[in-house]
Design a protein that fits this description.
The protein contains eleven helices and twelve strands. The chain has 328 residues and is an alpha/beta fold. The longest helix is centred in the last third of the chain and has 25 residues.
Length: 328
């Protein structure tokens, strides 16, 4: 690589171009944008969840190459940095994806190094939920709020924690990995453990819970967005499942609220689609488990990006570092 990432930040202009990549088992997107958050072009492919890293990496590079070809044809300048958002646990000092529940064949993969060598560009990497939190703080529902939480329910339940305007990674880069909390001895699993918070409250988990509670209506778990549509349409059984999910999510949310005292909690997929169908029973659960105390809850908000959230999150590792560097 020509320069270390922190060195090249000195030379980035306000319109410097970024190659952004958002990687998950369900879909992977590549975007061509700049440090202002403007996105010029994007490309997307579907699931790579069953692929081992070498095969998946080749597919990701093919996606990126196709995007860059379109950008060159339009006369856009070459990117100066690569920004990555990836699901799963990340060792940020080494740029290694240690594990990802939606990428089960990935184990300690050197994603940052491989991309840097492949494209001869500096690479910055961020965990999926953290990148979503940064996108909401800089451009979305959390603009101007320095203490907030981004709660992601897809592919697992996890929290991106913003303290004093910066992402909190924790001592072992594991802050916010709340989905593994055991809420019951047994129950739905989603991409986690049976009875875990991910099992009860993730998109996949809620669909699995619907099948468990109402097998006559759902002989197999519905697709998450089919279930969301049923709940939003007022289907009683789907709404009862949402209430049960909110009961467990409320317990975890109360722990976050009492520990971190955030001003705002922003909800990502699929909570942003459920809206008050989820937020109303969630508020009730938090207050009930908190003893009904009069202290104010944080403001609850939905992501403003909808389907664009993953694209914005793809750019945030570099945009956040650039903004922090400019302030220092």
């Amino acid at each position: 690589m020509t320069s270390r990432p922190l060195e090249i930040l000195n030379d980035l202009s306000p319109t410097a171009k970024i190659l952004g990549i958002n990687i998950s088992g369900q879909k992977t997107s590549a975007v061509f944008g700049d440090v202002t958050g403007l996105i010029y072009e994007r490309n997307q492919m579907e699931a790579i969840s069953g692929h081992a890293f070498p095969e998946a990496f080749d597919a990701i590079c093919a996606l990126v190459d196709a995007l860059l070809k379109v950008c060159r044809a339009q006369g856009l300048s070459s990117p100066e940095m690569i920004s990555v958002a990836v699901s799963g646990s990340v060792d940020f000092s080494r740029g290694i994806v240690m594990s990802a529940p939606d990428l089960p064949k990935w184990d300690d993969v050197p994603l940052k190094g491989r991309l840097g060598v492949r494209y001869n560009l500096p690479v910055m990497i961020e965990q999926h939920s953290n990148a979503g939190a940064l996108a909401e703080m800089v451009f979305g529902a959390g603009v101007g709020v320095t203490d907030q939480i981004f709660l992601d329910l897809e592919p697992v339940v996890s929290a991106g924690i913003i303290k004093d305007g910066k992402i909190y990674h924790g001592a072992n880069d594991a802050a916010g990995e709340i989905g593994s909390m055991r809420m019951a001895p047994a129950g739905p699993a989603g991409l986690g453990y049976p009875g875990s918070l991910t099992g009860f409250a993730s998109g996949l988990g809620m669909a699995e819970l619907a099948h468990m509670r109402y097998p006559g209506l759902w002989p197999v778990p519905p697709k998450p967005y089919e279930f969301v549509s049923a709940a939003n349409a007022g289907q009683e059984e789907a709404q009862q499942v949402i209430v049960e999910s909110a009961e467990h999510l409320g317990k975890a949310l109360l722990w976050l609220v009492l520990t971190l005292d955030p001003e705002l909690i922003v909800f990502g997929h699929p909570a942003d689609l459920l809206g008050e169908t989820l937020l109303e029973p969630l508020r009730d659960a938090v207050l009930r488990h908190g003893g009904g105390e009069a202290r104010s809850l944080p403001r609850l908000a939905l992501s403003k990006f909808a389907a664009r959230l993953d694209d914005m999150a793809a750019l945030m590792a570099v945009i956040s570092a650039y903004r922090d560097h400019a302030r220092d």
